[in-house]
Amino acid sequence: MLILCPNCGDRDLSEFSYVGDATVQRPNPPEARPEDWQSFVYHRQNPRGPHRELWQHNGGCRLILEVTRNTLTHEIVGTKVAGPQRAGSGT
Amino acid sequence: MARFSAWAVAKNALSGNRNWTSQWRKPDPKPSYDVIIIGGGGHGLATAFYLAKEHGIHNVAVVEKGWIGGGNVGRNTTIVRSNYELRPNALFYEHSLKLWEGLSQVLNYNVMFSQRGVLYLAHSPGELDAHATRGNAMRLHGIDAELLDRDAVARFVPQLDMSDHTRFPIVGGLLQPRAGTARHDAIAWGYARAADQLGIDILENCEVTGFLKKGDTVTGIQTTRGDISAPKIGVAVAGSTSEVLRKAGVDNLPIESHVLQAFVSEALKPVLNTVVIGAGGHFYMSQSDKGGLVYGGELDKYNSYAQRGNLPIVEDVHTMMLALCPQFAKLRLLRHWGGIMDMSMDGSPIITKGPLPGLYLNAGWCYGGFKATPASGWCFAHTIANDAPHALNAPFTLDRFNTGYTIDEGGSGPFPRLQ
Amino acid sequence: MSGFRLKTGGLIDRSQTRTFTFDSKKMSGFAGDTLASALLANGQSLFGRSFKYHRPRGLMSVGSEEPNALVTLARDGVQEPNARATMVEIFDGLKATSQNRWPSLSFDLLSANQLAGPMLQAGFYYKTFMGPTRKAWRFYEPLIRRAAGLGKAAQKPDPDRYEKINSFADILIVGGGIAGLTAALKAAEKNARVVLVDEHAEFGGYHRGDPREADTIADLLVRLKSLDNVSMLPRTTCFGQYDGGTYGLVERVSGHNREAMQFAPCERYHVLRARHAIYATGAIERPLVFPGNDRPGVMLADAVRAYALRYGVSAGRDVVLFTSHDGAYKQLSTLQDMGVPIRAIVDTRTAISDIAMAQVAATGLQLITGHTVTQIHGHHRIKRISIAPFDPYTSAVNGKERAFECDCLGISGGWTPSIHLTSQMGGAPEWDETLHTVLPGASNGSWSVCGSVAGYFDREDSVQSAEQTAEQVLRKLSLSRARKALAQPERKDVLNVGPVWSIKGAVGNAFVDFQHDVTADDILLAHQEGFLSVEHLKRYTTLGMGTDQGKLSNINGLALMAEARGLEIPKVGTTRFRPPYTPVSFGSLVADARGSHWRPTRRTALHSWHLDAGAEMIDAGLWKRPRVYKRGDEDLEQAYIREARTTRQSVGIVDVSTLGKIAVQGPDAAGFLDQVYSNAFAKLAVGKARYGLMLREDGIVYDDGTAWRLSETEFLVTTTTAQAAAVLEHLELYLAVHWPDLKVHVTSVTDQWAGASVAGPKARAMLSSAMPSIDFDNDAFPFMAIRHGKTAQGIPVMLCRLSFSGELAYEVFTPSRYGLAVWEELQAAGKPMDLVTYGMEALGTLRIEKGHVVSSELNGLTTAEMVGLGGMASQKKPYIGSGMTDRTAFQDERRHQLVGLVSKSDASVLTGSHLVRSPVLTTPCLSLGHVTSATYSPAREKYVALALLEKGRDLIGRELYATFPLKGHHVAVEVVDPCFFDKDGERMHG
Asked: Which chains share 3+ C-beta pairs under 8 angstroms with A?
């Protein structure tokens, strides 16, 4: 598998580590209910097909990226810098 | 149907083997059953068998999307062991091991359970201490375990590199003599044949496309071979649990699907007479009766439903192989493939009633599912028959993630990629 | 005898003789021979024994699909089992031995298995070996294992070298036949970076050695070699396609060439990333399934042709061909001219094409149409065959048998495209009703096919398909601007296959899978027993599971199952091919990551000093750390006791460079750490450090360490050695994803700092003398304070007054490049004060005496409360992990708690013991907890331990037993507070 790192270009799978599901939202502590924490820590959609997920280029620039990848074919549809887009951090 | 025996083999041989019949029937689905088990893998078939044998429930269908035994029961590295430290795991897997010990006779099908021992290597004094903690726990649970020092390891597995020149020299190991390997396909076929003989319908090429529901209660399934109803529906589709339950409207399971690769070498004359697990538990190998080394390593470490993996793990697995046995460099990889692991968030399984009325769930086997097959079916059948878990599977609930009573043998936390 | 060397022909160099041995018998061949061709030329007909029945087997093929001719190679003590004789190039001194026979190849005792043949049918082992007792399998299994298996594994380490390279291409072309060469040239001329691989030593594929094609091949090769954007790799197998255009290749570099061996690796593993792959992998001939089709002397018809054309070897002295299509008629006159004694052709069809007829007419061979071979006579090789009239419509023998003398039978039932690579990524193969063969399914866009693998069995169509495919790929990769694509040619049925899957009415074992001894009857039996799907068929009969991966057997097996089920072949389904295409050596996949290099080694700046000081080193993750510095005849325990005792009496020093160190910088650094740690950090003063505890989101302890506030906006965070990388990733994740608004940057500085901890009553005096510019007075340099300064020799240092040992202690950090110099200065300063250097064991002793926890206690299952750090969980702020600590289990009073244990006798408490109430060792027995760390305590002069114990704090003062059934060790212990020494911390603060 090759993953397009927004900083470094196409890089081999072995340079990256998988972080996890990018769709789960960390609850905001003051308002968070127990079920929100459950969802964040334990519950996963785990789709068979397109999946938004986080990877880290920790064998390279250490960027954390959001990758959209098909879990059945392993085809990568897109990558971008993870987290809310900040000015100047385009894909 | 004829019993299998040496006598039957000889008798049939004389008549040109024309009298053997189908090992399980190929029935058409009935409109309803007392219990439907979704998933014709080892666990589903075992569940059906024990429903009939232990609980007298014979009006059961096992529905399978493809051919039985096509998932992880036929893709794994066939290791059977019960060397766990945490009490719920130790008791459950030991129950499974005990069922394995008589399984060929109970099923009248040679599952080739070979108690050749499973040796966990320690590469540092700290790791040996951790093995000792586990081994002592096993002994206190009534499970066999032996601690081997370096010399004893060298005697037990002469193929291992016991020198100091390797990166992490071997300092000792924990042996479970009663553990071993079994013939993976035979489990699926043996349970299928035995279940079939007890009247259970095994419905192959019968894919579940949806669930019939009354309110929240699940009352049946829609399949490619028509609707089938049942008051109790057990799901045993590890690897695809999330996808199947999504069809029932459940999409908040503590499960991720990951790919685990498995490897087999060309056939060799006997060279390894036990199961060796080394490199920090990240590598395992044994030799099959046919002579191929059967081995594997870690997950590919990304969510996947593809039954194949990638080269970094292929390389790493062989690196660990040669770290333990450098003389194997000229042996060859014959075939490698992947299986889809139902990775639960604490590394332990789920055998429970729910998550909806009418539904029962058997899932989250991570990579421990093969050895668990008999006990999993046994406990799941108990849970379905009695609408309550047996003491052995009572801890394996879905609710444990709410209460905090997670069963995290490795202590790696809610991260399947680290388990 | 049988095969022999022809007077002319072949690509061999007849001026270069090569001598080798086979089963210790000396033989010779020529440069360019394979072991198979050389043995054949020497008249060898028996090459091996089959897997189950140990039947005598000869050479079946000329390529990597060979199921029978497997040998063990030996060279300079290196042993390589299961080498395919067809792929081994001979060299002087090659030693080959046959396999799976005892005592010899021609007399194999286990061939008695054949007598029990009907009992050893498919799956027989599932039905028996189950009695008389439950232990029966333990008795039978070793017997079965001994009979099974092929070659023997080496006993000595492999001295050969292997290499791995990463490479890149626009287009990978697999297969260097005329189609592959054509596609490569077409692509290369458009400036594409092309990698062309072929598994054989020479390019040319099917046409290698064919005199009519020699010029064409030579011309293509010359033109390709003139282009520097083409990389041509002969002897290279593309064994698999992986995600994202990654391909695994193995190149045989010097295994065939002893001279080159000294300088070059034996094999080279390429991980190639290509934008597109063109598979020109050709096709493999399909055997016919009839009784006795496995006897030595029966071989694929094309192998007869290829051995003559490529190696100048006749496969027999009296050759008959047996076929069901026109392909086998090719080049009959060429072969005859070369001297291959072909006598007759038996064809199952009643009519053959005019072209084939013309070939027959030109050669004057005897043509026997509408016939089948019904039996092979002879044991170790063919003596004669029986043939009989055959009705192709009913697939049945319909007349009387007659005998036919011959010593070699070339068989061919058609050709099967080598679609393996196309199917690895999940492309389901398709059945072609006209060609009666399987073709690649739809591509996922990453690969294309051309030539015979795509079903173009006509020479000109094949070339056209190669040109067209190359053009299409170039356009896809934007390397060609051609507007209009060439058209793919129509697939012509040039073989006119009259499919024959079984011969009804012929009696005897008809083999489908030669290596695994799967017969047509086995497939019928599988059907009879309900193993109907292809996957069940494979698994039940072991069809296609041998080292040849079913290259010769899969289609025949599939067709027989279809026939049995009364279905069309496509309805039975096809199986998915798994990598590797041909077996790949472990050595090549590992390359140089062997021996001490299989994982990296991390050494601190002080490593060489430790070795010089006689340290016994121990692995701590990837790090090497000193365990103890033994003196004289000390054993481990005596050494660590001395080191720990001396530290408490005077002063000790330990290398702590391996601690994880993370620079946390930015205006929001303090706020960030306040959420990362369970205890408060926001108000930590500049110049002070604090112990901190990190939890996971599920409320379990993650790691502990210290954070040093170096300025308003900068912290140095230390982590445990083991968790350094994980903690950094953890922090990076929160900053990138969960708290993107925080202005903080984190960087690993583990390797930038060397560190030493100096501890003991004389630490202050020692450091004062080593660093006179720093005021070490208790008020000037209080506990947890940070100071910057210089050593006496002027080397910059950063100190923090931290204690892990419970002594007055300072951690001294300096840039790694100064580490050794500072360490040596400290050693010198400590000399007058009886300084001791201590290792991991004494470090452990000192911290156990103080009840400090490490990874043994923070094992991923413990909460802060369980390890006695409940007080560090702030109630005033949210932090990572605070959201889930309200759960029931966290309040459960039966949870384990950290306690101390003191042995009530002189017996030690062993780490890994469990705590029980029973005064005698007994199993099973309820465990109340376990010993996490244990040591002899010089301070208490007792064996002590830390343990996690159910309701532990309630049991302080009670007697329990630490039991270690694995060693029969059982000692009485008293449960005590986990801090064994100086609980009020007077020494540390003094």
From this structure: B, C
- For residue C424, what is the nearest residue in chain A, using CA coordinates? A73
The most distant pair of C-alpha atoms in chain C lies apart, rounded to whole Å, by 115
A 16-75 residues with CB below 8 A of C?
17, 19, 22, 26-27, 29-30, 32, 34, 36-37, 40-41, 54, 56, 58, 62-64, 73-75
Give buried/exposed letters for B395-413 (b at 16+ CB in 10 A, else e). Answer: bbbbebbbebbbbbbbbbb
Cβ separation of C888 and B404 shorter than 8 Å? yes
**Domain C660-751 maps to which CATH number in 3.30.70.1400, 3.40.50.720, 3.50.30.10, 3.20.20.140?**
3.30.70.1400
**Domains, chain A, ranges and CATH?**
2-81 (3.30.2270.10)
Partners of C511 in beta bridges: C519
The alpha-carbon gap from A50 to the nearest alpha carbon of chain B, in Å, equals 10
Q: Does B319 touch chain C (CB under 8 A)?
A: yes
Nearest CA in chain A to B346: A42
Mean pLDDT by 10 residues, chain C (990 residues): 85 96 96 97 94 92 96 87 96 93 84 81 91 89 89 91 96 98 97 97 96 96 97 98 96 84 90 97 97 96 97 96 94 92 96 91 93 94 96 94 95 96 88 92 94 95 96 94 79 92 93 96 96 94 93 95 93 86 97 92 97 96 97 97 98 98 98 97 96 97 97 97 96 96 97 98 97 96 97 97 96 98 98 97 98 95 96 94 94 95 97 97 95 97 98 97 98 98 92
Residue B310 touches partner A, C-beta closer than 8 Å: yes
Rounded to the nearest 5 degrees, what angle is found at the Cα of C237, between the Cα atoms of C235 and C239? Answer: 165
**Cα angle: C845, vertex C847, C850; to 5 degrees:** 110
C732·A56 Cβ contact <8 A: yes
With 0-12 / 13-18 / 19 or more C-beta atoms within 10 angstroms meaning exposed / middle / buried, residue C964 is buried
**Distance, CA of C480 to CA of C778 (rounded, Å):** 79
CB pairs under 8 A between A and C: 68
**Residues of C in Cβ contact (< 8 Å) with A29:** 878, 882-883
Name the residue among A18, A44, A45 with its Cβ closest to that of B417. Answer: A18
Domain with CATH 3.30.1360.120 in chain C: 607-658+753-846
Q: Tell whether A82 is within 8 A of chain C (Cβ).
A: yes
**Interface confidence: ipTM more than 0.85:** yes
Strands, E assignment, C32-161: 48-49, 56-57, 70-75, 78-84, 94-98
What's this model's pTM, rounded to 2 decimal places?
0.97
H-helix segments, B15-163 = 42-55, 87-101, 103-107, 125-140, 150-156
The residue count of chain C comes to 990
Nearest to C549 among B21, B290, B335 (CB): B335
Class of C607-658+753-846 per CATH?
A: alpha beta
**Chain C residues interacting with chain A (CB cutoff of 8 angstroms):** 166, 242-246, 271, 273, 426, 444, 697-698, 729, 732-733, 736-738, 740, 878, 882-884, 886-887
CB-CB: which of A3, A58, A84 is closest to C729? A58
Give Cβ neighbours of residue C522 (< 8 Å, ≥ 6 apart).
C121, C122, C512, C541, C543
Could A84 and C166 be called an inter-chain contact, meaning their C-beta atoms sit closer than 8 Å?
no
Nearest to C369 by CA among C341, C386, C392, C401: C392
Residues of chain C with CATH 3.30.70.1400: 660-751
Please provide the size of chain B in residues: 419
Could you give the CA distance from residue C225 to residue C220 in angstroms, rounded to a whole number? 9
Fold of C894-990: Elongation Factor Tu (Ef-tu); domain 3 (2.40.30)
Nearest to C469 by CA among C284, C280, C213: C280
